[in-house]
Write a structure and sequence with these properties.
Distance between the termini: 39 Å
Strand content: 25-35%
Family: Belongs to the ABC transporter superfamily.
Largest sheet: 9 strands, mixed
GO molecular function: ATP binding; ATP hydrolysis activity
Strand order of the largest sheet: 6-7-8-3-9-10-12-11-13
Structural class: alpha/beta
Helix content: 25-40%
Protein name: ABC transporter ATP-binding protein
Shape: globular
Number of strands: 13
Organism: Microvirga brassicacearum
CATH topology of the largest domain: Rossmann fold
Pfam families: ABC_tran, oligo_HPY
Number of domains: 2
């Protein structure tokens, strides 16, 4: 694996609400190498999107980053404030949102917005900025990019708008792009086209992607590595192919079992029983235990991180252990349950 360009270490993000302190991100740790795509997977409310916003320092009151490090090429982004972090966003690390209209101003032409994005970080002429914008549109597979520059967002299809949003993120050739479920609202054929373009961009430009999604089918075809989240915590990590083929954590196994493509048409889909707990009132010990088919007496205590021979990890007292991969060691966690 290539040298990591992004290292997230023990990241913790809290929100102060009437019920108390909600730990939306609780000790998240992962890393992404140059040209690699990390799939950050989990149900709604698992903390994956908040993790993405935390990496870019986009958490506002009543939220705050309570601890941990976000190292971008060795620089801790959590220590940067004001103009310092604004110089980094867009230039060295960028974000693609689920709704491209969060990125695009509906009353301004695409060219106006992309030129402004270029000149926000580089002191170049409008002509040079427009040329870079046109090249970026071509890079993400938009036909007739010169014409698209003079269009307004409402004149473009949803898939085309999302490509423009990705092109804006690529303008300064950032080291990392955080993509927050950017294809969720698109039809399957357009989604497939964008995923293929993202895979190509990662391979050709060396940009690393953190792809936030709840869709394991997307991750299986796109990501190099997977980081599964539940109730604000990372419960399993590993190479995408290994995790998909043989999950170690019962939650990951439950998610994979419910993928429609794995079942015959009309067949009733299995599902993980119950629902995700409130982050303001987590059960003691393992947050997944009330829904887990492998839960045992030890699950009332904080689960350890199990380390496996193939470099994978699982936050579980009773991980699923194929004979070919027994746990090497376990590391105690320092999570504090909200109650």
């Amino acid at each position: 694996m290539s040298e990591p360009v992004l290292r997230v270490k023990d990241l913790r993000t809290e929100f102060a609400v009437r019920a108390g302190i909600v730990k939306a991100v609780d000790g998240v740790t992962f890393e992404v190498g140059r040209g690699r795509i990390l799939g950050l997977v989990g149900e709604s409310g698992s903390g994956k999107s908040v993790t993405g916003y935390s990496i870019l320092g986009l958490i506002e009151l009543p939220g705050r980053i309570a601890g941990g490090e976000v190292l971008l090429n060795g620089v801790d982004l959590t220590k940067l404030k004001g103009e310092q972090i604004r110089r980094v966003r867009g230039a060295q690390i960028a974000m693609v949102f689920q709704d491209p209209m969060m990125t695009l101003n509906p009353v301004l032409k695409v060219s106006t917005q992309m030129i402004a994005a270029v000149r926000a970080h580089d002191n170049v002429s409008r002509k040079v900025a427009r040329s870079r914008a046109r090249d970026a549109l071509a890079t993400v597979g938009i036909p007739s990019p010169e014409e698209r520059l003079d269009a307004y967002p409402h004149q473009l299809s949803g898939g085309m708008r999302q490509r423009v949003a990705i092109a804006i993120a690529l303008l300064h050739k950032p080291a990392v792009i955080i993509a927050d479920e950017p294809t969720t609202a698109l039809d399957v054929s357009i989604q497939g086209q964008i995923l293929a373009e993202v895979r190509r961009l990662a391979d050709e430009t060396g940009t690393a992607f953190v792809w936030v999604t709840h869709d394991l089918a997307v991750v299986s075809s796109l990501a190099d590595d997977i980081c599964v989240m539940y109730a604000g915590r990372v419960v399993e990590t590993g190479a995408a192919a290994d995790v998909i083929a043989s999950p170690r954590h019962p939650y990951t196994a439950g998610l994979l079992a419910s993928v429609p493509a794995e079942h015959e048409p009309g067949e009733r889909l299995p599902q993980v029983p119950g629902s995700a707990p409130s982050l303001a009132n987590l059960p003691p010990g393992c947050a997944f235990a009330p829904r887990c088919f492998k839960a045992g007496p030890a699950c009332n205590t904080t689960p350890p991180v199990q380390h496996f021979e193939d470099g994978r990890t699982a936050l579980c007292h009773y991980p699923i252990e194929p004979d070919s991969c027994q746990p090497l060691s376990s590391t105690s966690t320092t999570y504090q349950n909200a109650s």
